[in-house]
Amino acid sequence: MQTMEIIPRTTAERRRDTLRRLSSERDIWVSTAHPDHGPHQVPLWFLWDGQAAWMCTSADSATARNALKEPRVRLALPDAFDVVLLQGEAKCCPAREVAKDAADAFAGKFGWDPRREKAPFLYLRVAPRTVRAWRGVPELRGRVVMRAGTWLG
């Protein structure tokens, strides 16, 4: 196995890199929990609007049911080396009632508009309260780049 030298980034560099990834990536892991059934995790498409992540799922999915009962969620970009974890509360909105600008942006990014589906869909909007970002052990210290909804650095 080849090892890579990791030069630790400053908090400002981690914030910049995190925002770049949130703006450009397609998939995010969404973790919810049910009081009786425990944790549930799925990958979903997402849109970053500069303040929050928007995901959409079937209104009868376990993710939707869990988020409606327990809105605290965790999100993770799919990279085990360049880790980005977000934590916040999901605000849930039926697809036909979601803000037009958010739904239009989501449809524009993915070429799919849940508002046009026969089956009901639910948007989840998560404005993170905490964001952690790190690359390997050298960056574990200082991995928090957002605390209480405020970016650090």
UniProtKB/TrEMBL annotation:
<dbReference type="InterPro" id="IPR011576">
    <property type="entry name" value="Pyridox_Oxase_N"/>
</dbReference>
<dbReference type="InterPro" id="IPR012349">
    <property type="entry name" value="Split_barrel_FMN-bd"/>
</dbReference>
<dbReference type="Pfam" id="PF01243">
    <property type="entry name" value="PNPOx_N"/>
</dbReference>
<dbReference type="GO" id="GO:0070967">
    <property type="term" value="F:coenzyme F420 binding"/>
</dbReference>
<feature type="domain" description="Pyridoxamine 5'-phosphate oxidase N-terminal">
    <location>
        <begin position="23"/>
        <end position="134"/>
    </location>
</feature>
<dbReference type="GO" id="GO:0005829">
    <property type="term" value="C:cytosol"/>
</dbReference>
<dbReference type="InterPro" id="IPR052019">
    <property type="entry name" value="F420H2_bilvrd_red/Heme_oxyg"/>
</dbReference>
<dbReference type="GO" id="GO:0016627">
    <property type="term" value="F:oxidoreductase activity, acting on the CH-CH group of donors"/>
</dbReference>
<protein>
    <recommendedName>
        <fullName>Pyridoxamine 5'-phosphate oxidase N-terminal domain-containing protein</fullName>
    </recommendedName>
</protein>
<keyword id="KW-0560">Oxidoreductase</keyword>
